[in-house]
Every structure is written in C-alpha cells, then in structure tokens.
Amino acid sequence: MSPHDWCEQVGVGEFDNDAYYRVIEKKIIGQRNQFTLAAVEKGTGNLAGYVHCVREEESPTLLTIGCVKVDWEHQGRGLGKLLIAAGEASAAERGWTFADTSLTVLKRNCRARRCYCSRGFEEVPSHGAWPNMQSRRLQ
Could you give the count of Cα atoms lying within 13 Å of 72 in the half-sphere of its Cβ? Predict the structure, then answer.
C-alpha cells in the first residue's frame, strides 16, 4: 500500500505527521495486547517509520508484527531491522513471553524480505501474494 493510499484509508493528509500520530494513538489506546512504536527523525520530528506488534490471546507464545513501515527516504539504512528489534524488546519489557515472532510480507517486496531474513526470519510456505515469514527465537 502506498503512503498516499494509506493516508486516504485512515483519513489523514499525506504529509500531516501530527495526524499520523493521532491515528496511531487512536488505534492503540486501551489495548493491552498490542502497541505501536514510532521512529522519529531527529531535527525535523518527522515520522521515519513504525512497527505495530500484537499478542494474540489464542497464541500467547507468538509475537505478531502486524506492520513495519519505513518511509522511503529512510529505507536501506537498517531502520526496519531496528524497529523489529525494538518491537521484540518492548514486548519482552511488557512481560510478554514469546518463542516466535511472525510477520507477513508481499512476495514482490524483495527488499523487505531480505531485511527480515537478515533478522533471522524464514519464509513459511504459503499461497498467494502474502508469504508468511516466521522467526524462531532461541530461548
């Protein structure tokens, strides 16, 4: 999904960072089983990326990364890896015990798939355009 499409879907202006924060806060307020972490660019305060993590009640030992988004200006610099690591660390700090982390990515998003593989994720066989990638964490 392009940033323009996402902004239209949630009803914010494409370059309105304050609106981004309000939408993210609205989605997570009062939700104990999920959180979103934002990476903010120093100096400008612009949103550079975010990670959204969920712990499903039916799979409490699985941390699901619902979304990792890195602004195109910041891609290729390791921010995606940093956001994933921060999401896992924050989940552990919240007392969530999990053995696995999973996320879903488009098959055609080769750059993101390489990023996830470099963090230890492995592709799980799937059908369609959304391969599931899962990581085994050694405890």
Answer: 4
Distance CA 117, CA 10 (A): 30
How far apart (Å, rounded) are the C-alpha atoms in residues 78 and 125?
26
Identify any residues that bridge with 73 across adjacent strands, giving them in sequence order: none
Residues 52 and 36 sit within 8 Å (Cβ to Cβ): yes
**Do 89 and 26 have their domain in common?**
no
- Please give the pLDDT value at position 88: 93
- The count of other CB atoms within 10 Å of the CB of residue 53 is 27
Count how many Cα atoms sit within 13 Å of the Cα of residue 71 in the half-sphere of its side chain. 14
Average pLDDT of every residue of the chain: 79
Which pLDDT does position 113 carry in this prediction?
A: 86
CA dist., res. 134 & res. 62, Å (int) = 10
Whole domain around residue 10: which residue ranges?
Answer: 1-30
What is residue 63's predicted lDDT score, i.e. its pLDDT? 92
Domain CATH for 121 = 3.40.630.30
The alpha-helical segments, DSSP class H, found in 72-109 are 79-93
Same domain flag for 54 and 65? yes
* 108 & 55 share domain: yes
